[in-house]
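Memo to structure team: turn this sequence into structure tokens by end of day. - J.P.
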Amino acid sequence: MHDSEDAPARSLFWVLLTALGVLLLSLVPLIWTPRFYFWDDTENGAYGVWYHLGQSLLSGTVPILNPQVWSSGNYAAEGQWGTWNPLVMLIGVIVYLAPDAVVVTTSLKIAFLVIGGVGCYLLSRSFKVPPALAVVAGVASPLNGFTIFFDAPSWVTGQIAWAVVPYFWMLLKMAAEGRRSPLWAFLAGYLVVTIGYVAGTVAVGFVLLAVGVDALLKRRWGTAWRTAAIGFGLVLVAVVVYLPGVLSAAVTTRSTTAIANDDFMGTDLSGLLSSTIATAYPMMPSWWWGGFSAPAPALYIAWFLPLVAFLSWRRIRAYAPQIRDILFFAALSLMFVLLPSTVGPLRYPARFMPYLALVCILLCVVLLSHALAKHPSKLSLLGATGAIAFGVYGGWAQYPDRYLAIFLAGVLAIAAICVLWWRMRGNTLRLDKLSMASSVAVVCLGVTFGTTLLQFRTTAVSPLSDPAVPADTSIPKSVLAGVRGEVLVVGDPLDYPQDESTWSRTLMANTWYLSPASVLNRYQLIGHTQYNKALCLRYLGGTCAELLDRLFEQREETGMLLVDELGIDNIQILKKSFDGNQRPAASNNYIGRQDAVPVRSVPAGWHQASDDGEIALWSRDVPVGSSGGLVWTSAGTKLTETARSATEVTLRVDQVPAGGGRAAFARLPWPGYQVRGGDMGSPVDGFLLAVDVPADAAGDTVSIAFTPPGWAAGVALWSVGVGGTLLWAALDFVAARRRRTPELAAPEETPVPIRP
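Reply from structure team:
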């Protein structure tokens, strides 16, 4: 199955064909669900991150820490704010300038599906796969079940990382073999690593291992050295991305070293054996759905994988040394998706399914290109169709109610396999005398279009939650627009209808970044354990109803009210969260309550600014405006705040008792704070940043400043990794030019004719 080398125009044709195929198929879910790509964590988390990032960049800052949003404000430790990633920064600016959230998000996600598909095409071509079969790989790879039903609608950082990995793999092989500058491979790996999505970084590591081990087994020492050098540079970059989170983990809700398995978003072999059935729902428990089966084809890879039954095993053995890196990556990917559901801070091993799908599809088209039997036997036909039949049976056994959709997908696949077997046996089809590769491609693409339509017709949405955040950005921008000072929302907006009637009055998670009000209830990838406990704060920003009473209770160490420690000037009260019969759900961290909680009366010093019967707003009579600043000092200690920013507070010491004093700030004691003129104290009331002031400090200046932990070392290592790679690329460029420049030859003398 070898086609001749393409001319540049012909190569562009195949690339455009791949892009067009992915584009058309990525539009299919919009037929049934126009908001398909604006779902769950994209609405709640990523969109707000992009918006705030773009807003910050256009104002000349890169967000590192935001004390006003407390548990959600340690952006450096969260690692997915694009702090080091120019691609994410560009997305942020685009999103900030766009007026329609659904349109811009859908456009970006489809663009990355196309980018990923083209990357899979190019990666396949790098293994000498004929263009037609490479198109099959490029079109099929983005349609794997986990990408299209989980990452693309919701977990977009996973989608973006996956889309870039094929380019990294291709460019790494070329750089390691000396056929391309190492700069391009490093850049692709850099874009993946600095997204901050762990699965993507692990995939980069697996590619490096696969290519490096292959080079060592072939004793290509130069290739191995160049692979190791690129990998070393990326490891140095990864330090600055992940080290702040690692060094902050001890105080967060992600602080765990446990290895356990409750099958939560895990995979098993029974589900993987049905991965050729586009409509099969695997066993995969989760809090997003009831029962044990995921209501989406989460483990689907590609229907045509059983075509490997038509291979010549003799040819496979002969060709295997050429694809050791593919085999090694496949083995590592399979091991990863079969991990326990919790391995320390790593959760949901199913999130690595897109990479397993990528390598399975790649391996299939590579082997079909180089190891196809000349005349596949009837036994091989039985094996291929039997694999589909077994997948149909497994899919039905796991979710019997879907028998019709599963059966139809199986019939399509078996029919296509029979047609291809007939063609491979030397029979002719009315395909205009196409080559074998093109014949296989036409059938594969045709059936892929059919199974995709069937798939989305029977599974129209992602199984993750949809809060129906408004597409029109002017709606969230108007919520609490006239409110000044810090705002705390008590209750959970998910207790209300998920529609514009709710989102025009209150917001949720990172959608608050669009509001001009300063609201602390944001999405949190890592939450501060003690703070979240004090406020019963949930990961999407909702709180328990009991918090309203707790806000006006005295705290043990300071004697202040909790609302005063927080520096809150406004409280939005979601009254429906105070009703009885609150059922446990993922949105409220499994907290259930049968009895109603009464809404207390407005306390002294506060007034009710508004109340529509369902949502009320209380405001202070005299705002305190102390969020992020000094909120408490011990007896006999007097300090005057002279300057304040997001990362620093400066104070003048007016008075200190003989035994020294203590001061507390409306900030969380994240690792990374340093004190000048005093000492870092133990947190006040469990979650307030504290400073111990020396007895002889009167008249001096005390300052606190935040730098993400490990930042200095991380930046230094980042500089070495990036700078070293740039220097290497420059030297490589100079050496390449010298090799291409012919030496100046001495001018030849004109021979003198010999005359008789």
